[in-house]
Specification:
The chain has ten helices and no strands. It has helices at residues 3-29, 35-60, 66-84, 91-99, 105-130, 136-143, 156-176, 182-200, 210-216, 225-255.
Length: 270
């Protein structure tokens, strides 16, 4: 394993450790308040975006083998699932919670605002780290002006459908693995996430998360802002909505079983 890869893994570990420290501190300081949920959302989305930035750099600029990149994707998916502890870190997921009345619409919108704020902060944070030149890869990327190219390699409609399908698969996996023990569930969902990256990564990057895409893909040249919005915002939102509708309405209707009541499962104020 090259020195550049080892440095990048150390940076990822640093972001995870720092985020965990921030989660614990905010949990103590804001304990018993509704602000704790939003602080956790900020920190977890920040962690997700920072780690993805570093992995994206390794894959696209560092030239690591696809199987290694997929292995890192799987491991990081497990790490995120184990450390988020109630955070959503995905605007599409916040939409699903609002549809199922696990969050009020206002609370969902506030969480989405936190997610996009964290996405912007993560972009600034990783560039600050890269500017230190800890590895030749970081230094080279800095000299290139942190330039990146659009990962969209298929027509707009096809790209939107790819992100829709990826978001649908992930949300469906999240919905139908709730009965599993947590130690098994995180691996099951991580396998689905890794599979979607393998299937759709060469076409769009298979981001399936509007806030994550805003941090990692929107700054890249080669596609317009409106194209990015269609692919990385509209696609995941439609995919998540389709999964919720299918799981909570269509399937129960076909099976002639009572539909999901869509009642709150947690405090709406968070």
């Amino acid at each position: 394993m090259s020195a550049d890869v080892l440095v990048s893994l150390a940076v990822v570990a640093g972001f995870v450790v720092a985020s965990e420290g921030a989660r614990r501190c905010s949990g103590i300081v804001l304990a018993g308040t509704s602000l704790s949920a939003y602080a956790r959302e900020l920190v977890c989305t920040f962690q997700l975006c920072c780690c993805t930035h570093e992995l994206k750099l390794l894959s696209e600029v560092g030239g690591i083998a696809p199987r290694i990149a997929l292995t890192f994707t799987y491991v990081l998916s497990v790490v995120h699932a184990l450390t988020f502890r109630g955070a959503i870190a995905n605007p599409s997921g916040a939409l699903a919670h609002a549809c199922r009345a696990r969050l009020s619409r206002g609370a969902a919108l506030r969480r989405v605002a936190c997610q996009f704020a964290a996405a912007v902060a993560a972009r600034a944070a990783v560039r600050a780290v890269w500017s230190l030149g800890w590895s030749a890869l970081h230094a080279r990327h800095r000299l290139l002006g942190y330039h990146c190219s659009s990962p969209i390699r298929v027509p707009l409609l096809m790209a939107t459908l790819v992100e829709l399908a990826c978001a649908f698969a992930i949300q469906t996996a999240i919905t139908h693995t709730r009965a599993l023990e947590e130690k098994y569930r995180v691996h099951a969902v991580a396998v689905v996430i890794t599979s979607t990256v393998y299937a759709g990564g060469s076409w769009t990057g298979a981001v399936s998360n509007p806030a994550l895409a805003f941090s990692t893909q929107f700054p890249c040249s080669g596609s317009s802002f409106s194209h990015y919005c269609a692919v990385y915002c509209l696609g995941p939102l439609l995919g998540t909505s389709a999964s919720v509708l299918l799981s909570d309405r269509v399937v129960p209707w076909l099976l002639r079983t009572p539909a999901s009541p869509w009642q709150p499962e947690s405090r709406k104020g968070q």
